[in-house]
Write a structure and sequence with these properties.
The protein is an alpha/beta fold. The chain is built from 9 helices and 13 strands. Helix 2 crosses helix 6.
Length: about 325
């Protein structure tokens, strides 16, 4: 086909190496230029949903080749699921991450803390959506909102897909021209939310199984253009939320701890047994909950531990890919 000039486009879906990109021409299927695949030995450096890329269109704009990635302004990433320590990009160039928790089986403040760390790490503004409010009493709802408010200064929007309560506020929280992302476990009602926003049943949803786990399957991350001109990215329900090298993100999400720590007698206080520790004092007076502190330590430790493994693995990967490239060169001679 004919080749027209380079244009910028945005990645709207990624499915095992096959891409879709969105530009003023509409949506096209795309693949990576060989050079990009060859140069990158880290999956996190390959395009993900929300990335801006430079493409060249073929076949009257129906197909494209991705030649270059533009720098990410913000991002959401996690440790890959399972044993291996790699970074997995979830989405890039996101303005607001709507972290969805339901009032039902999925209500889990510890999990919310992980999502908040993920958002802080990638410089994305978090907003908490508390769904399925129709399943609890007014008092229970107030307790749940208070429990979440203790963890974050982010806005908390309670809503119900069933009654429609809180939907107007959610709609207004989707700013025109901004990119938002829905994050949450399977079964918290993300897909139902999108269907409601789009005013039609677009995605297949499943019931919730006996364990309270949602049963539907959003495997392809999708970027959806909403009527009011905002973009919404739906991500698959994530069972595992491992973190890698997000020390700053942890500190930003637990900012009240940093404030307390600044009052400790020693600058490098580990808050374990040193005299004059403001953090331990705050736990004793009840100003800081022991669970919150335990959670902070756990996330810091996990992040630092994974970071060491990740850097080690990256070193080995780089050495290996250098070896492969040298071997290819030698083969040519």
């Amino acid at each position: 086909g004919t080749l027209d000039g380079s244009k910028s486009a945005r990645v709207s879906a990624v499915d095992r190496g096959a891409y879709r990109v969105l530009s003023e021409k509409g949506e096209a299927t795309a693949e990576l230029a060989g050079r990009l695949t060859y140069m990158s030995d880290d999956p996190a450096e390959l395009p993900c949903v929300g990335d801006w890329v430079i493409v060249r269109f073929y076949n009257e704009g129906g197909e494209a080749i991705i030649h270059q990635m533009l720098p990410r302004r913000t991002f959401l990433r996690r440790k890959t699921a399972g044993e291996s320590v790699d970074l997995q990009m979830i989405a890039a160039n996101i303005d607001i991450a709507f972290i969805v928790q339901s009032c039902h089986f999925d209500f889990n403040p510890r999990r919310l803390e992980r999502y908040l760390v993920m958002a802080a790490d990638g410089h994305v503004e978090p907003v908490v959506l508390l769904t399925k409010t129709d399943l609890v009493s007014v008092e229970e709802l107030e307790e749940k909102i208070a429990a979440l408010a203790a963890l974050t200064t982010a806005r908390i929007l309670p809503l119900s897909n069933v009654s429609g309560d809180g939907f107007e506020a959610f709609h207004q929280a989707l700013p025109t021209g901004k990119t938002c992302c829905l994050l949450g476990s399977s079964g918290v009602g993300k897909t139902t939310l999108i269907n409601r926003l789009m005013g039609r049943e677009t995605f297949a949803t499943g019931g919730v199984s006996g364990t309270g786990e949602g049963t539907h399957t959003t495997t392809r991350r999708q970027l959806i253009l909403l009527d009011q001109g905002s973009l919404l990215i739906d991500t698959p329900g994530m069972r595992e939320l491992g973190i890698v090298g997000v020390g700053d993100g942890v500190d930003a999400s637990f900012s009240e701890l940093a404030q307390l720590a600044s009052r400790c007698r020693y600058a490098d206080c580990s808050h374990a047994h040193e005299p004059g520790c403001a953090v331990r004092a705050a736990i004793e007076t009840g100003e800081l909950s022991a669970e919150r502190f335990a959670s902070y330590l756990k996330l810091r430790k996990e992040s630092d531990f994974h970071e060491l493994s990740y850097l080690d693995k990256r070193k080995k990967d780089k050495a290996f890919s250098r070896m492969v490239k040298t071997a290819k060169k030698l083969k040519k001679h």
